[in-house]
Amino acid sequence: MMKTSDMSRLALLHEISKVDFAVVEMTLYLDTHPHEREAIAYLNHYVKLKNQLEKEYSYKYEPMSVSLANESDDNKWLWALAPMPWEGGCK
Hints:
Structural class: mainly alpha
């Protein structure tokens, strides 16, 4: 895996997408195997990584969710200022 400090915007989004895939798949797996400790640990690791990557993206570029809207140093409501997906945001 790349160091996040070396990633471009698109590479960071791609990494978030890959980690999110692992989170979704493990969530589905645990729906039918709720007592597998190894799977739970795997999920917890990737949830933590996803949160870290999304926070980094929100700090560097624009918020990925309302809960991350104020992760930058600006004293602005960034959620309203970031381009929406139909305006070319989150490319």
